[in-house]
Amino acid sequence: MHLFVQACILGLLTGGVYALMASGLALGFGVMRVINVAQGALIILGAYLSYTLYTDLGLDPFVGLLLITPAMFLLGVALQLVFLRPLRDEEREELSLLVTWAIALGIEGLLSVAYQTTYRTTITSYANRSWTVFGYYVSVARVYAFIASFVVLGLLFAILRTTKLGRAIRATVQNPTAARLLGVDTRMVSALGFGLSVATASAAGAVYGLVFSFNPGSHYDLISRLLSIIVLGGLGSLGGAVVAALFMGLAESVFAAEISPTWSGFTFFIVLIAMLVVRPQGLFGARVRGAI
Amino acid sequence: MGKRTKGLLAAVAALAVASAVVAATASSRPTAGPIKIGISLSLSGDFSDPGKAVKRGYDLWAAYVNAHGGLLGRQVQLKIVDDASNPNQAVTNYQNLITRDHVDLVFGPFSSLLTGPAATVANRYHYAFLEPAGGGPAVFALKLHNLFFVQPAPVVKCGDSFVAYLKSLPASQRPKTAAYPSLDDPFSSPIADAMQSQLQKMGVKTVYRHIYPAETTDMTPIIASAIAKKPDMIVAGTQSQDAYGQVNALVQANYSPKFLFFANGANSPTEFPSKVGKNNVNGIFSCSDWTPAAPTNGNKLFVAQYLKKYGGNQFDIDNNSSEAWAVGQLLQLVAKKTGSIDNQTIINTLHSGTWSTIEGNLSWNQYGQPSGNDLLVEWVNGRLLPVYPKSFALAKPFSPKPAWGK
To answer: SS3 for B350?
Structure first.
């Protein structure tokens, strides 16, 4: 029982980081019908930038976020304008897979040249600290990562709910034609939406690097997990992605502790297959657009 | 005999002649000018850190020899090429070094993963293959007569000295239970398996054993499962990254076993403390083939030369560098004894007798597997020191391991 509860604590904290990582992917799909398979690589890019700021300048990853996130937002806008905007609407979903895959490989290649393929972790002064609560240990870094994830997610929800840009994004998600007719520049909204999605990825990367070791090839494993999460949550549903991420973090950790760590990663794909068979639209996904 | 059969025979004969010409070309090397030695090393990729340490050892040896009259009066010229830690690239590199660059000799790359395929290429061209870092069972299973692993013991015996040390303790101080979390890797998990078998015979009960895949980046769930069984001792068959991850997960869980042994990772004098924190290293055991204070042939000279060229402290010297130097030293010993650097002479000569190097007194079976033992090393007051056998010990081992941060 002790091990089960300990695994649940670890899993929930990890699930928080997954939630932040998956939210950008859900946003990208919701706004632009783009399945961004480069999301994993962008997260790893964020992890490397945060690692570099910490090791070279001594900037704590949570402070580094303030620099990395805006920069990655601009990168996201640029990527959308250069690579995704030219795609024709009727083929957007299919072609976006290829284009974003190419972006992922490009990022991986550049990171391999710049950092080589050695595994890294952002080891801060509090990396190995933990609190003991009722006999269970709680890693300080994981709690910080969990809190940071929900702060960024909160900001993302606030932008979507309260700002003009957020309203424009939601309008574009629900009905791009009507949004255009009402004067929303949907092309610009798409670019800004993708920028937001990439900014979220970079924030997720910074916290990811605190908890996990990574190298340029880590994005393959990451993207397969994230795709499972957003399918479980419902494609394009931000809230669904968060709930699914917490659930998967929990399931993975409990599976690892109680059954086998070797097969724990497989829980993602068992759930993915089961979900596609039983409820293809996911937990919170709608069969039509407008679910965000 | 039909026309087609004759044609086929002629083709086969032509091929045989061509092969003989190629082989002759490969073996007809000049006997004047510098001695060219070809080496493929992992200067990028997964093994780039140890690969660079090996390069430092080779470079240092060549510089020293050249500054002292060369080898048999000829200067030594190293041709080192990068294999990006990729076995296929290592094969291509040795093929090119031998057939295109016509090097006189080759030295081995880093890790068993690359050594096996590389040694097979060298064997095809009848080159001796003195190698510093390929000691996994898979290498010796190739049954190559030209290969010599220039370390005292094969990898699978890495934990023998630790088991011997535990046996030397009074029964009351020995661990009663053990956990074995190991990496699914041909060099790591066999070490833990071999130790588990010996320890069980000693009466140490196995309470946890798990082999995790190489993709595992989070060791926390594995350690959580292992420590739930409250083992007195953790014996981990690791490489580097997973060893760091296990220590960090143990520190976070604030679980300090009485004995903690890592097959690999903890024996890196500079990397290990930087990855787990200087305060968390004390009392951790590992195995090593070499230490700076070992009273072996030429060790003082190597340490002095290393510190002169690269600076730092003797206890920060990576044993991958000493292994590379020992490869060069071994070649020197053969050249001195036979007056030749002919590959076949080297192979024949090394297969008899015992050779005294900085890695200790070495001798091999017919497939290049050494017959000695590794040393038991432990982190004591922030330094990685030999602690067993007693004749090599520079410190008394901790028993039990101090708490984290002590």
So the answer is: helix
Mean pLDDT of chain B: 89
Contact between chains at A116 and B222 (C-beta distance less than 8 A) = no
* Closest chain A residue to the Cα of B184, Cα to Cα: A262
The interface predicted TM-score (ipTM) is: 0.78
Residue with tokens 């402290």: B313
Co-location of B183 and B275 in the same domain: yes
Say if CB A203 and CB A68 are below 8 A apart.
Answer: yes
Q: Is the pLDDT of residue B3 over 70?
A: no
CA distance A50 to A202: 9
Same domain for B40 and B59? yes
Q: Which of residues 82-101 of B touch A (CB under 8 A)?
A: 85
Tokens of A213: 């070791």
SS3 B294: coil
Mean pLDDT of chain A: 86
Q: Do B228 and A6 touch (CB under 8 A)?
A: yes
The predicted-structure confidence for A181-196, as pLDDT tens digits, reads as follows 888 888 888 888 889 9
Question: Is A267 touching B (CB cutoff 8 A)?
Answer: no
Pair B40, B121 in one domain: yes
Q: What is the pLDDT of residue A116?
A: 76
Q: What is the dihedral of CA B1, B4, B9, B15, to 10 degrees?
A: 180
Domains of chain A: 2-278 (1.10.3470)
B29 contacts B71 by C-beta, under 8 angstroms: no
Per the listing, tokens 């980046």 go with B217
State how many domains chain B has: 2
Same domain, B63 and B186: no
The secondary element (H helix, E strand) that includes residue B177 is strand B177-183
The one-character DSSP state at B371 is -
B33-66: per-residue pLDDT in tens? 899 999 999 988 777 778 999 999 999 999 999 9
The residue segments making up the domain with residue B279 are: 157-289+375-392
